[in-house]
Design brief:
This protein has 11 helices and 4 strands. By secondary structure, the chain is mostly helical. The longest helix is centred in the middle third of the chain and has 29 residues. It is elongated and about 100 Å long. The C terminus is likely disordered.
Length: 402
């Protein structure tokens, strides 16, 4: 089950205070404007009710796609690499100071995630790309949630949802793999657990596992049977044998949770898989009981000698004669070499670094307008650190767990 990520929020900054460029003086201003849009979009997304957030993910995705090429342009200017075929002369006036809310770190009960202050352009790039990967995971979660709704989707809708979810997970995997590889060159400890190399590597493995798990579960009939049991509009009962109409309270609570879509997937599908295991266990017990009854109460006319004689007679007097094929068991070393690894279905592609268009690079050669920079218009007072809730355990915020 896809994890229900919470998108982080960030404070306002101005790149014009940290960078100057003799070749493209408007680059810091345009980057500040694009970041201000991302900041406002993330804050508006957080204030939406959980039922309205999935439909707003496309807006967050568009803002991040607009902003991330500017970050790579700033990074190319600092490292001296060309961007869109042009050399960008960028000078660092002072270190970039950014604040992002750590949503993957540990926090006390009744407290909001604390902001982490970082001083590097790499931290800003990692948080922006990490947020983009989380948006992809949430989009995949929204697609898969349609398969568990009360109204059963059609076969075309099911295939479309599975294909879209698989693509989103692979896009998220390429981003996390890129970040984990780039973080290997760090010499200092990560300032936030969200961008720590072990966490990025784990998230890359989880997203690939989610994409692989979809290929297995899309043909599994038992999750569909659980969904059919949840579907109130199902007409299966009209031609199926009657069963005891009982449902436990925990199953009803899980059905309500899936219907609302808020915390669905927070337990990694443990309860849903438990219902599937219970159905399989009931099926196996029924089959085993049937075999046991046939062994305890054999047919009265059964004669073992007569049965063996009939088998041997059939083997030698049929036309053509029956043949029993016997094959030796190969050694385990050769079997292990031919067994699939379980992850050969997908071939993840590397993350393609987005670049600015040539006409956008050309326009940045003009001198900047002092009033053109946009740092965001959303008020920050609502997002400031809130006090401890009554009865909550006092926790110090902003400290790494390691």
């Amino acid at each position: 089950m896809p994890f229900p990520f919470v998108l982080p929020t960030t404070s306002s900054i101005s790149f014009t205070d940290s960078f100057t460029s003799s070749t493209h003086p408007s680059l810091p201003t345009h980057a500040t404007t694009a970041r201000g849009v991302v900041r406002d979009v993330l804050k508006r997304y957080k204030r939406l009710p959980p039922s309205s957030q999935p439909s707003n993910l496309s807006t967050v995705l568009a803002a991040l796609h607009e902003y991330i090429p500017y970050l790579f342009a700033l990074d190319a200017g600092l490292s001296g690499t060309p961007c869109a075929g042009e050399e960008i002369d960028l000078v660092l006036v002072k270190e970039v100071e950014v604040e992002w809310r750590s949503v993957l770190g540990s926090q006390g009960a009744g407290t909001t995630p604390s902001r982490v202050r970082m001083k590097s352009l790499d931290s800003e790039l990692f948080f922006a790309l990490g947020t983009l990967a989380q948006v992809y995971c949430l989009q995949a979660r929204a697609q898969l949630h349609t398969l568990y709704n009360a109204a059963a989707p059609s076969s075309e809708q099911r295939v479309s949802a599975i294909t879209a979810a698989m693509k989103h997970f692979l896009d998220a995997n390429s981003i996390y793999t890129f970040l984990a590889t780039r973080a290997q060159s760090w010499t200092q400890v990560s300032p936030a657990v969200d961008i720590a190399p072990p966490v990025l590597g784990a998230l890359a493995a989880v997203t690939l596992a989610e994409a692989t798990l979809i290929t297995v579960l899309k043909d599994d009939p038992y999750p569909a049977a659980v969904q059919e049991d949840r579907n109130k509009a199902s007409k299966e009962w009209m031609f199926r044998g009657t069963e005891m109409p009982k449902k436990e309270w925990a199953e009803k609570r899980e059905d309500k949770k899936i219907e609302k879509g808020g915390a669905w997937g927070a337990d990694a599908g443990r309860f849903e898989e438990g219902r599937v295991v219970d159905m399989l266990l009931a099926k196996w017990e029924k089959m085993n009981d049937t075999v046991l009854i046939s062994l305890l109460f054999p047919l009265p006319a059964f004669n073992p000698s007569l049965f063996l004689f009939s088998v041997l007679f059939s083997l030698h007097h049929t036309n053509p004669p029956l043949q029993i094929s016997i094959q030796t068991i190969p050694p385990p070393t050769s079997l292990l070499s031919t067994m699939p690894s379980g992850r050969e279905y997908h071939s993840p592609k590397p993350y393609a670094i987005p670049t600015l268009e040539e006409d956008a690079i050309v326009r940045m050669r003009a001198p900047p307008d002092p009033g053109e920079a946009f740092e965001g218009e959303e008020d920050d007072s609502e997002e400031e650190e809130r006090g401890q809730l009554p009865g909550a355990f006092p926790v110090k915020g902003g400290e790494a767990y390691y």
